[in-house]
Design brief:
By secondary structure, the protein is of the alpha/beta class. The chain contains 18 helices and 27 strands. Helices cover 33% and strands 25% of the residues. The strands form six sheets. A seven-stranded mixed β-sheet has the order 2-6-5-3-4-9-8, with helices on both faces. The structure holds alpha-D-glucose-1-phosphate-6-vanadate and cobalt (II) ion.
């Protein structure tokens, strides 16, 4: 049946951003809200008619309700077949791999990623296209435009009776529905990339101890199957493995702040040899060793420098890429190895053109995201397996590998400071004022820091020539330090100013200090440059990761 879509514009204040639609659950529960968004996608990506659609989510509150609506709308919009993860589960990377594997024309991933879940938390919907990657800028613009003009949506009169817990073939009003194990195809791909025998050897007899925290989000079943069952990590190595609708009340974000209890396990004597955690939808990763959390920029650099040790990358890398605010540690590795190195705006979709063109093999973001050409999304467990594989081959403790890396390339101290600014208008004002002051900054000094140059980052895609402006403000110091300012695009309340601080340190004698100590002066300078206290009253970051 066709239902008039009397207006609730799904996007309202949110432009379709880096990761689809993300809003408080209550917003999604408003009548016709979800329907209008789904219909805008069906109308804009017409390939879905007569073909296959992949569906899965991170298991958060409203996942099942959303899938029931989606199945009814898919059938009414002429989709031939839906492939759905059992219990409505699919991690973002698993969905990204499954879409091309089943020759689907696209997939809906129901997640608000690392945002908290539950009735008072957030929900979200991402749409990925047939290569498994996120909708392009052009498509998201088209979906947005369609959502403004929509006057009807299609849905079957019959409710969905599909049993999400039963594997195999079912149907809904003539549309085929197949419920698949969410893990098996993903795990099979991992087996082609990594040396499972070698990792099994490392983990056998429990001499090498690892811990993985799924934070009660989607990676639990994946980690149990791959780390415990296939690789033989001791039972219980994977903790918080059961996906819960509210993630157990926590914030499913693998960073030293939100996962601080987990990080504490790695302090002091008796720490496990290796640790990792992932986020709500499984695309992020945090890597830990005894007494150390590996900064995401370092992680990318170490993976690039050691890629030849891992079967899937043994033939070398085509190139590497990092998002602009990510530390420049990988640039140094790329220079030594003679590899092309790309700097893209924040958001995984900017890597996809480079990956499709075969120009890069590894990519990473400072927000605990890393992946490779095997997928078109970042992939949390993939990064964990990569580290485990190289630990098995190198046979050295993780902190030693890191120290040797720094000794060779220098250390890039890095932290991100987030300032929560409740009034989004104020936040915009900070950025505007800062933007206007850029031309005056070059050549000036703030405290002991001499500023060499400052600019607003513009990216020109080398493949399709598209230009993305205003992707963050950069301030470079004379001694190889950098501060980047940008506004978060994934929050659902107020605004978050992200301040990324980075300092290169060639002197190994200084590598042992804490990043926070090494970056204290730069942090102070950043506050002064942005006139943060004057404009917002904020004296210190709300959160540091
Ligand atoms: C954040 C991260 C960014 C990441 C995005 C989506 O965006 O900084 O690097 O690509 O989240 O990640 P922002 O605009 O809030 O800084 V995920 O795991 O939430 O899909
Ligand atoms: Co995520």
């Amino acid at each position: 049946m066709s239902v008039p879509a009397v207006h609730t514009h799904p996007f309202d204040d949110q432009r379709p951003g880096t990761a689809g639609l993300r809003k408080p659950v209550a917003r999604f529960q408003e009548p016709r809200y979800l329907e209008n968004f789904f219909q805008s996608v069906f109308d804009s990506w017409t390939k879905l008619k007569g073909s296959t659609l992949v569906i899965g989510g991170d298991g958060r509150y409203f996942n099942r309700e959303a899938i029931a609506v989606l199945l009814r709308m898919a059938a009414a919009n002429g989709v031939k077949k839906c492939v759905v993860g059992r219990d409505g589960l699919l991690s973002t990377p698993a969905a990204s791999l499954l879409i091309p594997a089943v020759q689907a024309s696209g997939g809906f991933i129901l997640t608000a990623s690392h945002n908290p879940g539950g009735p008072d938390g957030d929900f979200g919907v991402k749409f990925n296209v047939d290569n498994g990657g996120q909708a392009s800028e052009t498509l998201t613009e088209a979906i947005y435009a369609r959502s403004r003009a929509l006057d009807r949506y299609y849905i079957t009169t019959e409710e969905s009776r599909v049993d999400l817990s039963r594997l195999g073939a079912q149907q809904h009003v003539g549309m085929a529905v197949e419920i698949v194990d969410p893990v098996s195809q993903y795990a099979a791909v991992m087996e082609t990339l990594f040396d499972f025998a070698r990792m099994r050897d490392l983990l056998k007899n429990g001499q090498f101890r690892m811990r993985f925290d799924a934070l009660h989000a989607v990676t639990g079943p994946y980690a149990r199957e791959i780390l415990e069952r296939r690789l033989g990590a001791a039972a219980g190595s994977v903790q918080n493995a059961k996906p819960l609708p509210d993630f157990g009340g926590g914030h499913p974000d693998p960073n030293p702040h939100d996962a601080r209890e987990f990080v504490r396990l790695f302090e002091g004597n008796g720490a496990p040899d290796f640790g990792a955690a992932s986020d709500g939808d499984g695309d992020r990763n945090m890597i830990l060793g005894p007494g150390v959390v590996v900064s995401p920029g370092d992680s990318l650099a170490v993976l690039a420098a050691n890629a030849h040790l891992v079967p899937g990358y043994g033939r070398g890398l085509a190139g590497v890429a990092r998002s602009m605010p990510t530390s420049r540690a990988v640039d140094r590795v790329a220079k030594t190895l003679g590899l092309p190195c790309h700097e893209t705006p924040t958001g995984w979709r900017f890597f996809c053109n480079l990956l499709d063109a075969g120009q890069v093999t590894l990519c990473g973001e400072e927000s605990f995201g890393t992946s490779s050409a095997h997928a078109r999304e970042k992939d949390g467990l993939w990064a964990v397996l990569f580290w485990l594989n190289l630990l098995a081959v190198r046979g050295e403790p993780l902190p030693v590998i890191l120290k040797k890396h720094w000794a060779e390339y220098g250390r890039d101290f890095f932290i991100r400071e987030d300032y929560e600014i409740p009034d989004a208008g104020k936040a915009a004002e900070v950025m505007r004022a800062l933007g206007n002051s850029l031309p005056r900054l070059a050549g000036s000094s703030v405290g002991d820091i001499r500023i060499e140059r400052a600019d607003s980052f513009t990216y020109t895609d080398p493949i399709d020539g598209s230009v993305s402006k205003n992707q963050g403000l950069r301030v470079f110091s004379a001694n190889d330090g950098r501060v980047v300012f940008r506004l978060s695009g994934t929050g659902t309340r107020g605004a978050t100013l992200r301040v990324y601080l980075e300092q290169h340190e060639p002197d190994a004698a200084k590598h042992g200090q804490a990043a926070k100590t090494a970056l204290a002066d730069l942090s102070e300078a950043a506050r002064r440059i942005a006139k943060l206290e004057e404009l917002t009253g904020l004296k210190a970051p709300s959160q540091t990761t």
